[in-house]
């Protein structure tokens, strides 16, 4: 049961990270600071690195296979 809760929580956090990066996309300074904070977590550091290198705004989290939708429009 705890494993399912951990996966669900990770999905929520991933969704939040992707949604926030998308919202901050035009403000590169704010986006950079946000991704620096995300990189402090070993779990989500690769996601932050990928977003920092991307030249296009992130798609909605469901595009990446994230099941959580609570942070989406």
In short, what is this structure?
Helix content is 59%, strand content 0%.
Strand content: under 5%
Radius of gyration: 12 Å
Number of helical segments with 4 or more residues: 3
The sequence of SSEs as H and E is: HHH
The number of distinct β-strands equals 0
Percent range of helical residues: 55-70%
- Major β-sheet annotation: none
Shape category: globular
Assembly annotation: single chain
Structural class by secondary-structure content:
mainly alpha
The low-confidence parts are: none
Termini Cα gap: 29 Å
Overall pLDDT metric: 83
Secondary structure elements and their pairing?
Elements: H1 2-24, H2 28-38, H3 45-53
What does this protein structure show overall?
The protein has 73 residues and is an all-alpha fold. The protein has 3 helices and no strands. It has helices spanning 2-24, 28-38, 45-53. It is globular, with a radius of gyration of 12 Å. The model has no long low-confidence stretch (mean pLDDT 83).
Tags for this model:
3 helices, 73 residues
């Amino acid at each position: 049961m705890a494993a399912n809760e951990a996966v669900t929580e990770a999905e929520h956090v991933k969704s939040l990270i992707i949604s926030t990066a998308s919202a901050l996309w035009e403000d590169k300074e704010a986006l950079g600071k946000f991704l620096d904070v995300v990189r402090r977590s070993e779990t989500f550091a690769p996601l932050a690195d990928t977003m920092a290198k991307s030249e296009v705004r992130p798609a909605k989290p469901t595009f990446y296979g994230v099941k959580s939708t609570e942070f989406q429009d």
